[in-house]
Amino acid sequence: METPLITTPNLDAPDDFYEALIEAHQGLSADESHAFNARLVLVLANHIGSLAVLRRALDAARLGVARSSLESQ
Length: 73
What we know:
The chain has helices at about 15-25, 30-50, 50-70. The protein is mostly helical. The protein has a domain at about 30-70.
C-alpha cells in the first residue's frame, strides 16, 4: 500500500516552526544557510525513510516551483 503524501497543512504549530527555522539561520552566511537547508532536507528525508514518499515530495515541490514561476510572469 502506498503511503500518501500529506500536502495539506499538518504542522501543529506552524508559526513556531517558522520562527525556529528563521532563528536557526541567524548569523549564517548565504552559503552556510544553503548548507543548513541541505542538511535539514537530508535529516528529514532520513526520518521519512521511504524513497517512494520522497519522490512524491520532490515532484510536489518541483510542481510548486513551476507554478510560482508561471504566476510571476
